[in-house]
Amino acid sequence: MYTFESRIRYSETDSEGKLTMASLINYFQDCSNFHSEDLGLGLEYLRERHLAWVLSAWQIVVERYPGLCEKVTVGTQPYDMKGFLGYRNFAMWDEKGEFVARANSLWSLLDIHTGRPEMITEDMLKGYRLGEKLEMDYGPRKIAVPPGGEEKEPVTVKIHHLDTNHHVNNQQFINIAMDYLPEDFVTGQIRAEYKRQAFLDDVLVPSVTAGEGMVIVVLGDGGNRPYATVEFTRK
Predict the structure, then answer these.
(1) What is the pLDDT of residue 72?
(2) Containing H/E element for 176?
């Protein structure tokens, strides 16, 4: 497993001095980027071939949120690659080697000009050494959305929502969805399903459904086409 060490920064914490979910996701994203760059399979490699890895689904399980200045280790491991799909685990451990959080993710390799899936290259198949699938309780990729969601005020995509692929970053979708959680809601698990990309000036219409210990937020186009669906389970 590819790993790097870090320390929880003040800028990564909430009002209680604990790591935020947004910062945890950023750690995981950074880890996969570091991994790819160190293998020579990073942004430049992808740009030269007009390719991009686009996240299709997240499952993130949090054991606890580490506090300010805690030392942590962040790791990632691809465990399967087939066709245009890549499966990758993530984890964060504390100084005792105990899990802070772990995650599963599914990625699609796309042509940035056509938006169509592209087969994983031979370089990628050779470079990414597949490892053992991380031990965790894997949930289904598809999120069942009950009827009767409450529609909220639309959100217009701004420049700060975008990443190097010029679309809304997966973490930004989750950040937007988290605005609709109750104030006392502590997230123990997130599942996110990404349906399509959103770009600058697109309008996201949130629909929120709250159940026992769970909140589901659909970020759609105001019709029947969701961009992303995020399910939050209370810790």
Answers:
(1) 98
(2) helix 170-178
